[in-house]
Amino acid sequence: MKAPKRSIAPDNFRKGRLSEAEVHQWLLDLRDNPHVPESGFAVSAVFRVRAGDAEDYYFAGVNVENMDHRLSTHGEEGAISGIVTALGKNAEIVEGWVMGAPSAVKAGDKSFAANAFASCCGKCRQQIAGLAQEKAKIHYMSVNGAVETTTVGKFLPELFTFRQFIPDFAKDLGRDKAPTSAAVQKKLLRKGPLTEKQIESWLKSLQSVDYATKTSQAMVMKLDNGYYVAGARVEEAAFVDINAAQAAVAVATAAFGARKVEAAWVYTKGRDEKKLPAKTVGTLPLSALQTLSEFAKSKKIPVRFLGDRGLSVKKTLASAAALAPVSGQTFYRVKNQKM
C-alpha cells in the first residue's frame, strides 16, 4: 500500500448548513480517499449531526478494507467513527447522504454505475439506527447527482437499539452548548509534534459509546504526514461494533486517504462496576491489532498502553498481541512501576 503523494488539508468535518449540491461535491471529492485494494468499490458518506443545541455539524467517512473482510469499515461507519470520537455518545444523526460506485467512475460518465444508487448494507443500517431516530432521512446519491430518499425507520423496520432498553440513553441530548468547529477538529486530528502529556490528555477527553460493556477505549495514531488522529470505540446494541483502531483509521482515511501509521497510543477506562483494577492498563483485542497492522509502517512501531496515575506500558505492534484479552479480561497488570 502506498500513501498518496498529494498533500491536502483534512476535509472530513464541516460546520454550517450545506446545500444538496455542496454535499454532492463533497461526496465526489471524498472518492479519492477510500482504501479499497480488493473490491475497487469506493463509498463516501456524509451525516448531518445534532450536537448540543445545534444541528449543522457534518461528518464524512469513506470505506476502508482489510484483508480480514469482517474488519473492514464502510463509509457510513467511517463517518460514525468521526461523530463519536468528536462528540461522544450524546450526538444524534439527523440526516445522511451515501454515494457508492467503482473507483474509476467519474461524474459525467454515461455508464450505468454513474447513475445507480448504492444503498446502505444491513450492518450500516444497524449502526446508523444506533445514533438516529426513525424519522431521520437518508439520501442515496448517484455519482451523477440523482437522489433517492428513505428514512431510518423504513430501511430498518422494528429496529433494535440501545435506545429501547438503556434508561439514560442520550438523556442530555441537546442540553449542552454546541461545540466550536475548532473544538471538534481538535478531538479528531491535530498537527504534530505532540508531547506524551498532550496525547494522554487528548485520549482522556474522548468518550466511547459504551452502554454494553461500560468500558470506553480510545486510540491516537501518529501518521506519516505529521498529523495525529484519534478514534473512540463505538458499541452497538447488536454488537456490530467499531473498535478504537478501526475508528482512528477511518478518521485518518476520510481526512487524508490511506496513510502509514508510525506509532499508536491506547487508553481504556471502565465505569461503575466495570472499573479497571488498580495498577492495570487496558489491552487491545486482536481485531484492533489486525486493523492497525494493515496501515502500520512496520511491525516495530511503538504501541503505548496508558492507564491512570501515570501508568504506561510500551510494546511494539508485534509484541502487543501478547497482551490481547483472554476470556473477557480486558486489562494487563503493570508490575514494578510506581504509582
In short:
It contains 10 helices and 14 strands. The protein has 339 residues and is of the alpha+beta class.
Protein described:
By secondary structure, the chain is α+β, with helices and mostly antiparallel strands. It has two domains: 152 residues, 3-Layer(aba) Sandwich (Cytidine Deaminase, domain 2); 153 residues, Cytidine Deaminase, domain 2, CATH 3.40.140. The chain is built from ten helices and 14 strands. Helix 2 packs across helix 6, helix 2 packs across helix 8 and helix 8 packs parallel to helix 9. The longest helix has 13 residues. The radius of gyration is 19 Å and the shape is globular. The N terminus is likely disordered.
Features:
alpha+beta; Cytidine Deaminase, domain 2; six-stranded mixed beta sheet; 10 helices; 25% helix; disordered N terminus
Q: Helix and strand layout, with pairings?
A:
Layout: E1 13-15, H1 20-30, E2 41-51, E3 54-62, H2 75-87, E4 92-102, H3 112-115, H4 122-129, E5 132-141, E6 147-151, H5 152-155, H6 181-188, E7 189-191, H7 196-205, E8 215-223, E9 227-232, H8 244-256, E10 261-270, E11 280-282, H9 286-295, E12 302-306, E13 312-316, H10 317-320, E14 331-333
Parallel strand pairs: 4-5, 10-12
Antiparallel strand pairs: 1-3, 2-3, 2-4, 5-6, 7-9, 8-9, 8-10, 11-14, 12-13
Helix pairs in contact: 2-6, 2-8, 8-9
The fraction of residues assigned to DSSP E strands is 25-35%
Work out the helicity level: 25-40%
CATH superfamily of the largest domain: Cytidine Deaminase, domain 2
Enumerate the spans where pLDDT stays under 50 for 5 or more consecutive residues: 1-7
State the CATH topology of the largest domain.
Cytidine Deaminase, domain 2
Number of separate helices? 10
Q: CATH top level of the largest domain?
A: Alpha Beta
What is the rounded distance between the termini? 42 Å
The strand line-up of the biggest sheet is 1-3-2-4-5-6
